[in-house]
UniProtKB/TrEMBL annotation:
Residues 1-19 form the signal peptide. InterPro entries: PhnD, Phosphnate-bd. The keyword Signal applies. The keyword Isomerase does not apply. It comes from Rhodobacter flavimaris. This is Phosphonate ABC transporter substrate-binding protein. Belongs to the phosphate/phosphite/phosphonate binding protein family.
Amino acid sequence: MKKLLAVLAATTALAGAAAAEEIKAFNIGLLGGENAQDRLNSNECLRKYAEEALGVPVKLFAPADYDGVIQGLLGGTIDMAWLGASGYAKVYLTDPEAVDVALVKANLDGSFTYHSIGFTRKETGIKTLADVKGRSFGFGDPNSTSGYLIPSVEIPAITGHSMQSGEYFGEVKFTGGHEQTIVAVANGDIDAGVTWADGQGNWEDGYNSGALRKAVDAGLVDMNNLVEIWRSKPIPEGPVVVRRALPENVKTTMIDLVKGLQAKDPDCAYGVAAGDTSGFVPITADYYNSIVEVRRQMIKSGS
């Protein structure tokens, strides 16, 4: 048994050394959705596990906007990230060879979708999108799937108007991210807005996972003061991607780490996945073809 343990230890050390020989560091990009420090805190456990697995320094990067992560992947300064579907579409349409799609977050029921959720404060008296006509409405980030791309397609189909200020909504604002939208609505800075959630579980908990759940966990909002006024069709959950130019063993090590995170450390997985989930499971790029096409068409139309 001692010999076996020695062999296993030596093999593990050699694997880590091999990864270290091929890369000097590894950088993980954290998409917007909550403030930078909370993003860093939620993913610190992943950083530590990655450093142990790779045997090289691992850093977390939490840029101010979605495009910071996107450009980091395209430019080679970020090696791995959990993107939204629209963010992945932008990466793919800019450089189809930049990243490999690896994993997707699975909901508790095993599905791989979530929703853009329109919401307001209970005191506004707003119950549907029709009640928001002429009032202020908030979106998160232009590169967000649920915070802009999908609402900008589905809401005009309902209202018959564009998303430009004064067309249907009195004023349209980009808040900068999901957390910012939630806080702006809760504080009365805007009348309504959109964010993301899996739509499963209880409203008062912020559903099982998503930006509302993270806001509840952070003590930023009381969901009893908010109401849902619109829900999108199911949206493909965004992919965990790795930079294609990385050595294969490095990619495999990181993919296996994230895939096994739920079993290894449920608390860590909760923070990384933004709530209660079944963890991350394998997915292919084909799953995102519809979102890539929507984004392609928006580029053509100049939206």
